[in-house]
Amino acid sequence: MDTLTREPTRRFALAAGALAFAAAAIAPRLAFAKPSDVEAEFAKLLGGKKPSDGRIKLDLPAIAENGLVVPLGVDIESPMTDADHVKAVHVFADGNPQPGVVSFYFTPQCGKAAASTRIRLAQTQNIVALVEMSNGSFFTASQEVKVTIGGCGG
Amino acid sequence: MSTRPTPRVRLPATAKAGEMIEIKSLISHEMESGQRRDAQGAAIPRKIIKGFRATFNGKEVFRADWHPAISANPYQSFFVKATESGEFEFTWSDDDGSNYVAKNKITVA
Description:
The structure holds two protein chains of two kinds.
Chain A: H1 2-26, H2 35-46, E1 52-53, E2 56-59, E3 63-64, E4 70-76, E5 86-93, E6 100-106, E7 113-119, E8 125-133, E9 138-147
Parallel strand pairs in A: 1-9, 3-9
Antiparallel strand pairs in A: 2-4, 4-7, 5-6, 5-8, 8-9
Chain B: E1 7-10, E2 14-15, E3 20-27, E4 49-56, E5 59-66, E6 75-81, E7 86-94, E8 99-108
Parallel strand pairs in B: 2-8
Antiparallel strand pairs in B: 1-3, 3-6, 4-5, 4-7, 7-8
């Protein structure tokens, strides 16, 4: 009888210890980017200019089941001529360990300012894109992606 | 995972002048983000492909800067307007300084 009552407590103590250890190991990794970090990156690129909304279509799932592989597509309306084309698109995430995700650089030869890749998302967060046009103007768009961890809606 | 990354590129072999072609590429690479820790709690050093560049007949057509948020075995697709026959060269630049290169010819009628 004695062993039966003691066994669960020992297990509990072990489990609690393991949890505390795991938490300590994870804690230093929880330094995620904040929306203000994305704003700082924006400020660097914008150099005092103000971006307008629209013109860019973000192709992202509303809910990503696996944060390790999230398809990301961008499509920007533009004639893509030498005089008027999309120079670059910078994509940021405000809840990853680092805000930078990807930058695409287009040329008029592309014919179409569209590109896609696959990205990692650590948690549910906003994806923000900044489009740089050849005439120096900027456009922005953002979308939230819910990342479900283990299917429990984290 | 010390195998040499293998690039794969898919694009049409022929195209009509003025046609928009889609280029899809994939390269095998672990894209170690530098955020993970091993069983002993030591940080695993970052090793990613940080840049992708596509040139056509020696002239740059598309480029991308990749950050650690790019998934393992990075995929990249983009468009190019076919104007003349020639050769595409794709270069992936690794953190360790190595470059992985793939070349594809296209015939424009």
